[in-house]
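Dear support,

I submitted the protein below through the web form. The confirmation email said the job was done, but the results page showed an empty box. After a refresh the structure appeared. I'm attaching both so you can tell me whether what I see now is the final result or a partial one.
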Amino acid sequence: MFLSQKRPFLLSLHPMKYCLYIFIIIIISVSSSYAQQGGGQRGGFSLSNLASSKNALPDSLLFKDSTELKNKRIIAYSLTPYIGDSYIAPLDTNKLNYANSTLMDGHGLSVAYLGNVGSPAQSRIFSERGEARDFIFADGYNYYKYTPENVHYFDVKTPYSNVTYTFGGASINKEERLKGVLTTNFGKKINVGADFDYIYGRGFYNSNGTKLVSYRLFGSYRSDRYELNAYLSNQHFVINENGGISETTYITDPDSHQQNNREIDSKSIPTRYSTTWNRVRNKQYYLTHRYNLGFVRTLDDFDEEGNAKEIFVPVSSIIHTFEYEDNRRRFYSSSTAVTDTSYQNIYNLDPELNDRMSSWNYKNTFALSLREGFQDWVKLGLTAFIRFEQRKFRTQAPIQELIDNPIKPGNTTLYPTLSLDFPLIKDYSESSTYLGGEIYKRQGSILTYNARGELAIVGDDIGEFRLDGELQTRFNLFNKELSIKANGYIKNVTPAFFQRHFYSRYFWWDNKLKNTKQVYVGGEAKIEATETTLSAGVESIENYVFFNSAGVPEQSGSNIQIVSARLKQDFHYKAFGWENEIVYQLSSEKKELPLPQVSAYTNIYLATKLAKVLTVQIGADAHYFTEYDAPYYEPATQQFQLQRKGYEMKVGNYPLVNAYVNFHLKQTRFFIMMYNVGTLFTDPNYFSLANYPLNPMHLKFGLSVNFNN
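What the results page shows now:
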């Protein structure tokens, strides 16, 4: 009903437009007024994507004067989506737990992946999964992919660089990762830099090698009146797909496959196929800039010459953000005869497997903001924005004769009326216009909040909306500071494009999917003195889209409920440390949305300092999740789907135990780790996904060096 009555719906938006015009006039009027008046007391400012952020980065007017940051030689910050508000992003310089942070398992409490470094991955904790992007083939690389929200910008007093190198395994199965960043300032306002990420994993199993190459060039300009942040990036992911091992007993019962009383090497375990690859390319251009309107305030402070100090106080900002993203995917094989036998249907007469899909996305966001705290009586900030999106997609065109009568593997029946003298291509275009706003209070400790919403008012996504918010308070309980946070969201989201349209050699669908509706309510309590954090939440999903056992998108007819609770409890006494985290989650539809009920992590260690300069941490950690019907990763779609019929298996109930020694010496960190030592004392059932085992036990090494001079 909401979508079908398009004309009344659009007419009903006219009052909203008038409100926006009034809001713009008020902002400009207030800005001009204070630019002329000046005076008053200095207020505190912060920009953050979370109302509760304890690391909020001051506005540029306080960026160089903040007593908290002025002595720091290196400041890293990130930006909020679309609006480009900045907030502190802590650098990975922890003296402890360096080894675990380099693992895919260390990216979250419980992460499912294909075993090899750089392979597609998905969190087993449902609340940690994001929305499916239109170009769904890149979603599996979220842990490696640059996005406007997760990249860092810098402000440094001296040139800063960091190089990290990790590796493990022997020459035939060696995994390597080299990461680095280099950045420097030119004066107080300009910063430029570059970072890169290179992954090369030969793989411990047949045909599961990975090669990921990413780089980014970035820069920023920050002055009182004008701020700019920009970057360009290229990312190239190549995965040798094996479809998983064909017989799980090679892992669970290796003795039954011994040859001449010798255990079979992991490289010799048969896999679904061996000459197939996925290649994903991503290119991004990003620019956000703003002009600040405000006034100059005289402080009750004097410089060395006795002159009163002055600062610029922004009252409002005019903001523009531009994003461009180019995605390309290719699925190909040098032995089509082998891969054809693994699928039920063939929708392409091309003698070679060479599926290609592309997408382009342009976004322009214009915003006006009224800043919080430019006077004592201004207790909140307001932002209004409008975003224009233009999306283009290219895929192989469906052939109706093959859709109605697909070829079966091994069938040599020809279609003489069809011709493939030229590529069959189909282009799609979509566009949408969003109107939104944000209200926030980020100053103070008694009560802070942040609420943001957006609504698609024109275009292909008309009626789509997102509304999320967070509320936090702090107070003392039994002389200990207690932080309580409540958060939630309501979404009505259009399913991703390639969930609706997909044409390839082995899969074809053209779905009319309803919008997915999600409602979440949760809360968190934290006592820093006891190192205790407890959180819980309930989520309701209507029209949930999942990939079924046949590998095709399906929309659930049920209202799925997910209940979750998380406890994080750490203990520290002198040299002893014990860190624990456990999550309980329950899905009301386990067949459509299988989740492990319990996921846990524990880390026990001794940490001490030798010769007052060398920090040594010796310990062992373990990742664990209960047994469940884990998804299967399908290379032809690059999606995590329900397990294939006839190949069902339970995954879990196995502790991934790693023993490690971490070292920290001034600006250098290094570690030695024995990965997956659990095989020595428990049944070898170390699967991460259905038919995809973790790597067997082996040694890992890592080195990270900072250069900031």
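Response: this is the final, complete result; the empty box was a page-load delay. The mean pLDDT is 87.
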